[in-house]
Amino acid sequence: MTTITNNKIAFIDGSRLITEACVQAGAEVFVGYPITPANLLYSYSNQRFPVMMAAPDEITTLQWMTGYSALGKLPVTATAFPGYALMIESINMAMMMELPMVIILVQRLGPATGTATSGAQGDINGVNGTISGGFKIPTFCISNLQDCWELTAKAVEAAVRLRTPVVLLSSKEMVMTQMSFDLSGLSNIEKVAWKMHEDTQEYKTYATDEQLIPAFLPVTQNKHQVRFTASTHDQSGILQNTSPEALNNSTRLKTKLDLHINAYLFYSYDAEKGAETIVFSFDITAQASREAVLLLRQEGHKVSLLIAKTLFPIPEIYPQILSNYKKIVVAEENLDGQYKHLLFGSHPGSHIKSVNAFGRMIQPEEIMEEVKNNG
Amino acid sequence: MDKNFLVDSKALPFCKGCTHTSVAQSTERALQKLGYDPLDVIFVTDIGCHGIIDKSLKSHTVHGLHGRSVALASGIAAGLAKDSGKKVIVFIGDGGATIGMQHLLVAAHHNFPMTVVVHNNMLYGMTGGQPSEFTPEGFNTPTSPNRSAMGAIDMVRLMEGVGAAYVSRISGIGDLSNELADAFAQPGFSLIEVMEICTSYGVKSNPGMKLRQVIESSGLQLSKHTNDRAEAPHQNFESFSSSLITEKLIITKEFEPIKKGTVRILLSGSAGEGIQSAAEFLAKTAMLSGLYATKKGHYPVTVGVGFSAAEVIISDEPIFYTGSTKPDFMVITSQDGLDYAMPRIKKSDRSTIILDQSLTLPETKSVIKLTDLRAKTGSRNAAMLSVFHLVRKFGILSEASLLTAYSRNKLSAKVPIETFLE
Ligand code: SF4
């Protein structure tokens, strides 16, 4: 019997950890509107954030957030797909303006309003396609309570350091289920500082050095003119048609991420020596996958496990790791494997197996069965 | 300091004769009258001809999405420090005001410190002259050449309706700087609607029609209304709140577990009867014995009616997967709960089902135990009673841990423990 002897065990839900981690990492304002299953995040944030704003709708939420971000106050919101869908144009705006923010997307069963109180992992394609033109919004996906803490802090850090909106992806059971959890394992979170423009000489809102990340100045200072612009713009933030400088500035939004995303590459790879099969998963199904792999190994099966935490841009390392295996079992709670298709195309090879569920959680037994299946 | 707000007030990017030009020039004069420096002012604009003013401005500029500038500016205005000395001004068209009308109402309702200048030329200029909700009766546009039969929305009255601190409508002819300065000088929210004419589309579609005539025949009044309202409270980003992760959450092991392995329990009953808190109580009781525990809730979107169910897992090993499709115990306290659990009851063959005695026995291969979970203690206590029954009857956890956990539970102040021990 391995009962817990450490004395820092709490009965806790992920929403509490996420909210606290946001604030400790430097988030200052929560702009929320009511939507299930993100309401716990709303109520914790109401209690904890320095400033809390109750917005009337989803578009206003994102617009207010962008306004706060222009002041240098890091905003956070929490939503589900119906809200996220309405936010998309504004998320594009914030990305183009390079104004940081964190959008916590708690997945629930769709399509449309679907079932608000049922979890899902159905928004992978939606998030992947958030930004027009082939750009990606950095997306981090929580796979357990420890991630609710550490990954949240990293999401805040990525938003501020890379000057971009960031999605922290999750799902109903991940943020609402209460679990016994050892608080002594929570690392210290440092407040993230914004990289400010220090030079007194010249300032162009979107001029960068070789790091490709512009230095920030809020619209409240009197030294330099600041221009935040959603339309295609030059380095000064002046609207341009398709001048080379302006197009370069837009494509920099991709190269900026390419250059820095490896600093925010999070996954856990549990490689079993001699294994020819690997289970690949993320979010709530990562928990079923962990249990399945544990039980399979107890039964004497050799199997590895890869849990993705950085979902977008898709890290190169995932296909690299997966290519070492003869059989790949991808488990995700949607119709037919959205992330699987993003990784392997519309018609993946026969060695790519899918475990999916719609309207319920995937059980460890289903993953075990697919791993053991010789077909 | 250079007090010019416009890079070159003679070279503005609008068509010849467009009223946007005089709005821009008058804005500069108004701000100069009020003594602002260019970098004290944050202009928020959006899509439409008026929005291309940005490059001509020496102030801070934020250029957003069509119709959303007021919401974007609201975020900036709401977060300004007290006595910041900053002025937030939105330039929006009647098209943008149509698209984002709610944002205007909300900003006025909150009394965010900002001024919205609605450039109302009664059509969408940039996109070819389509009608907006502000196109008055009898006014043609290129895509609605047969005179709009519908009156225009009266923005001033709408604003009054939401309690705007300041709203006015002026004609865009001549110098507007006094009227604009009056609006800019307000401490809270102000909106000024400037009636304009688009020389490219408005004039062409309504030959010979003068702006004064349009205003007169539209029935819209040139007027000003104020409402003596308190300013929106300033936000304190330094405000203190204590951590959500506190020592109070910690549950220390005080008892020995009396059962090995994992027990999965489904509590299923009706909303409003304490299922969720009883399930949480059960999990916390297990933690007093140093066990791992999880609790997952299920309920419809309605909070006060329908079913409420919770899955609890208690284990001496770490728990990853928190579902339980085949629970060891299913405790059913009401008909709602029975209906919800029915698919699992039908499938189960190795569960123990504890059923309130008032309910009809379902068909199942599992063992059913009938007991009174509601009659004696009442429906409000049915869930807690079922937890006591489960723990004591089936020896899931020690009696001592149960008693201690209850003494620390909120309910113990209202319901004596004896209620559950009989
Ligand atoms: S199209 Fe109309 S609104 Fe636009 S600049 Fe020309 S006159 Fe002004």
What are the main properties of this structure?
heterodimer; A: 375 residues; alpha/beta; Rossmann fold; 8-stranded mixed beta sheet; 5-stranded mixed beta sheet; 12 helices; 35% helix; B: 422 residues; Pyruvate-ferredoxin Oxidoreductase, domain 3; 2 domains; 7-stranded mixed beta sheet; 13 helices; 15 strands; elongated; binds iron/sulfur cluster
Largest interface, counted by CB within 8 Å of the partner chain's CB:
A-B, 83 and 75 residues
Q: Determine and state the CATH class of the largest domain in chain B.
A: Alpha Beta
CATH domain fold name of the largest domain in chain B: Rossmann fold
Query: How much of the residues of chain B is beta strand, in percent?
Result: 15-25%
The radius of gyration of chain A is: 21 Å
> Which stretches of chain B of 5+ consecutive residues score pLDDT under 50?
none
Major β-sheet of chain B, in short?
7 strands, mixed
Distance between the termini of chain B: 85 Å
State the CATH architecture of the largest domain in chain A.
Answer: 3-Layer(aba) Sandwich
**What would CATH call the homologous superfamily of the largest domain in chain A?**
Thiamin diphosphate (ThDP)-binding fold, Pyr/PP domains
Give the proportion of residues in helices of chain A. Answer: 25-40%
Order of helices and strands of chain B: HEEHEHHEEEHEHEHHEEHEEEHEEHHH
Distance between the termini of chain A: 37 Å
Helix vs. strand class of chain B: alpha/beta
